[in-house]
Every structure is written in structure tokens, then in C-alpha cells.
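Example 5.3 — ECF transporter S component
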Amino acid sequence: MQMETSAKLYSLPFSNVKTYLFALLFVAGNIALPQLCHLVPTGGPTLLPIYFFTLIAAYKYGFKVGLLTALLSPVVNHLLFAMPAAAALPAILIKSGLLAGAAALAARYAKNISLSALLGVIISYQIVGTAFEWALCDNFFLAVQDFRMGIPGMLIQWFGGYALLKAIARI
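Solution (predicted C-alpha cells):
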């Protein structure tokens, strides 16, 4: 018999101080994780660490926390470490925003932590984001880089995101 863990999923408003506190916590994660991943050759494009905590933030705490995390993480990382490069920022910001929207929407409709919902989030933000990236850079090969190199990162988002969301389910 499979036990279903109930999960507390939120949709925090901009007027709630917790929105900003949680966003700052997830931005810190999105700063630390890429630094660790960049210790591995091609760790950034392969492991896609800038998106991980955005997925968690939006799925667990809603679109507003996710959007703040999605927009601040790449900008702060760029300002502190020049990574991602300025030329990559527009595409990463678009993908991050799409991820926040898709994750919040999936959590709202799934009402629980689901591998299939998370897979749908990851595939949808990557496909739509790739289309935007292609329009921005006019280079299909560059636009599909996440699909060429980032499968390990997408798998980490899927299974690692599921595991972390399950671990914090009752918080």
C-alpha cells in the first residue's frame, strides 16, 4: 500500500514579509549551488543549478516567491560572479520566470508533490524557454543547449526537486 504524504503548499502575497524572506533564502541557494557546480568542468550548462531553488520556491511557496527567486538569482549571481554572462541573462531570466509560473501552476492544480507534475514543469519551461532563446539568439544549436548538455541537470531538478519538496512537505 502506497502512503500519500500530504503537503503544505502556499501562495504567499507580496504584502507578506515571509514572501521576501523565503525568496532571499532560495536566492541564497541559487547563489551557492551554481558556485559548487562550477567547480566541475561544464558544471553550469550540464547541471543547470540556477533553476533548482526556483523550482522549489515556486512549487512550495507560490508564484510570487518563485518569481522573486527567478529574477533575483541570475542577476545577483551575475553581479557577484559575472556568471551567467550578460549575454545569457535574458534567456535565463525568461526560462527562470517560465519555471516559476509553471511550478506554481502545477502545484496549484496537483495539490501535492508529484513526480509527473514536476516532469511537466521541467519539460514545459524548457520547451517554451528554448523557443524564446532561439528567438533571442537566432541560433537553434545554442538555443537547444539545455537539451544537448543539460539532461543531468533536468534529472536533478526532477528527482532532487521531488526529494527536497517531500522533505519539506509539512513545513
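Remark. DSSP finds nine helices and no strands in the chain.
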